[in-house]
Design goal:
about 120 residues; Hypothetical Protein Mth938, Chain: A; five-stranded mixed sheet; about 25% helix
Length: about 120
């Protein structure tokens, strides 16, 4: 699905997502990714666990993490929520399309947001 790109050169914006991956600020990524306002990383483990999301905590400055869980939303373990909350990060889980759209809106508002995205397969 094509998303309208927002124009803030120094910010990462999700332009496209699909089963094959993502296009973020003009760069194509295959597979799962972590998107921060200042950079995008391949999410090698793609594990929705405290260990798998350690790069989000290590990045610092994130207040809200959006997790795109593919085509459908699923519950997230309470232990994960508590682990992130202890680091000052709120968690919202949703389908990947909703996570991409929500990330773009919040990043456009200069919010301290990150997204952990699994391709919608």
């Amino acid at each position: 699905m094509e998303l309208t790109a927002l124009s803030q050169a120094e910010r990462q914006f999700i332009e496209r997502y699909g089963a094959a991956g993502f296009r973020v600020s003009g760069v194509l990524y295959r597979g799962a990714i972590l998107v921060f306002p200042d950079r995008t990383l391949e999410w090698a483990t793609a594990a929705v666990t405290p260990e798998g999301l350690a790069p989000v905590v290590a990045h610092g400055g994130v207040e809200l993490l959006l997790i795109g869980l593919g085509r459908r939303m699923a519950p997230v373990a309470t232990a994960l929520r508590n682990s992130l909350r202890a680091s000052g990060i709120a968690l919202e889980a949703m389908d990947t399309g909703a996570a991409c759209r929500t990330y773009n809106v919040l990043a456009g508002e200069d919010r301290r947001v990150a997204a952990a995205l699994l391709p919608p397969v």
